[in-house]
Automatic annotation (TrEMBL):
InterPro entries: NST/OST, P-loop_NTPase, Sulfotransferase_dom. Residues 91-330 form the Sulfotransferase domain. This is Sulfotransferase. It comes from Capra hircus. Belongs to the sulfotransferase 1 family. GO terms for cellular component: Golgi membrane. Residues 1-22, 57-85 are annotated as: Disordered. Keywords: Disulfide bond, Glycoprotein, Golgi apparatus, Membrane, Signal-anchor, Transferase, Transmembrane, Transmembrane helix. It is found in: Golgi apparatus membrane. Residues 57-78 have a biased composition (Low complexity). GO terms for biological process: blastocyst hatching; heparan sulfate proteoglycan biosynthetic process.
Length: 342
């Protein structure tokens, strides 16, 4: 940094008679402009994506053909419905949050269940695309037979103020699944994802605290998402607590079968996805499927999942833990679950 300053000074001296004070002023503004450009790139990366064009809707994952419904034995789990069978329905259940909590893993695990048909991509209907209308939304859904559940996930719903009212207008009976994770770890994971797309960002601590030393900056989305109690307050204005299931992102890693059992119970389904479906991948550090949907081969989530986190000073971590502690405790009281983050 000192060398850079010396070079800048020399250039200014050599051009003093030509550029005068204006050249020195432009040189002094350069670091500020660079920082503004970097932060601008971060903001663009963090902004929600656009709604997909109406003519290009995400296609449901291919499914295997199903024998006639009448051929099932009573109580036997159903097989996935063929893409041309059944009809499109509004989702009876939604994974509404949270980002970097484990929602993709949960969705992939649940898609093993023969009576769950899930949209693979995130439609973002209730936060970005609501003006497209409910008929458009339903057209995205995979076809299901009676007794099968339609599911979609969009983690940004949980922090979108309008989403609870909109979902309630679609169906007040919708079941809502929220995957939560230690908010400090979640924030660092969020930052790591953005850093992978926008190298050169300011440090995690510089973004988490105003001016790097001041109070926690709750305007930064990576911090704000972790205020689970505040977001849940908004949802409880429209849905009773009984419509929610809160899944631990930590236990989804340490005991995926146990958490999947709770989800299947919540959805009123037989426990088909069990510990026999999982193995722990030591390289990635989280569970993988012994067999993916429609395949006989093992399957782990993509390389973007389980990416290494940047090193964050312990003092920064401790400050954030102290900040989140009262919010976490309120969230425990609201949900009746202690997630053990404190």
């Amino acid at each position: 940094m000192a060398g850079s300053g010396g070079l800048a000074g020399g250039a200014g001296g050599g051009q003093g008679t030509v550029g005068g004070p204006g050249a020195a002023l432009r040189a002094s503004r350069a670091p500020v402009l660079f920082a503004a450009l970097v932060l601008g790139a971060y903001c663009l990366c963090a902004l929600p994506g656009r709604c997909p064009p109406a003519g290009r809707v995400p296609a449901p994952a291919p499914a295997r053909a199903e024998p006639p419904r009448a051929s099932r034995s009573p109580g036997a789990p159903g097989l996935p419905v063929a893409s041309g069978s059944g009809r499109r329905r509004f989702p009876q259940a939604l994974i509404v949050g949270v980002k970097k909590g484990g929602t993709r893993a949960l969705l992939e695990f649940l898609r093993l269940h023969p009576d769950i048909r899930a949209l693979g991509s995130e439609p973002h209907f209730f936060d970005r695309c609501y003006e497209r209308g409910l008929a458009w939304y339903r057209s995205l859904m995979p076809r299901t037979l009676d007794g099968q559940i339609t599911l979609e996930k969009t983690p940004s719903y949980f922090v979108t103020r309008e989403a609870p009212r909109r979902i309630h207008s679609m169906s007040p009976a919708t079941k809502l699944i929220v995957v939560v994770r230690n908010p400090v770890t979640r924030a660092i994971s969020d930052y790591a994802q953005t850093l992978s797309k926008t190298p050169g960002l300011p440090s995690f601590g510089a973004l988490a605290f105003r001016r790097g030393l001041g109070p926690v900056d709750t305007a930064w989305s990576a911090v704000r998402i972790g205020l689970y109690a505040q977001h849940l307050d908004n949802w409880l204005r429209y849905f009773p607590l009984s419509r929610f299931l809160f899944v631990s992102g930590e236990r989804l890693v340490s005991d995926p079968a146990g958490e999947l059992g709770r989800v299947q119970d919540f959805l009123g389904l037989k426990r088909v996805v069990t510990d026999k479906h999982f193995y722990f991948n030591a390289t990635k550090g989280f569970p993988c499927l012994k067999k993916a949907q429609g395949s006989g081969r093992p399957h782990c989530l993509g390389k973007s999942k389980g990416r290494p986190h940047p090193r964050v000073p312990e003092a920064v971590v401790q400050r954030l833990r102290a900040f989140y502690r009262p919010f976490n405790r309120k969230f425990y009281q609201m949900t009746g679950q202690d997630f053990g983050w404190d």
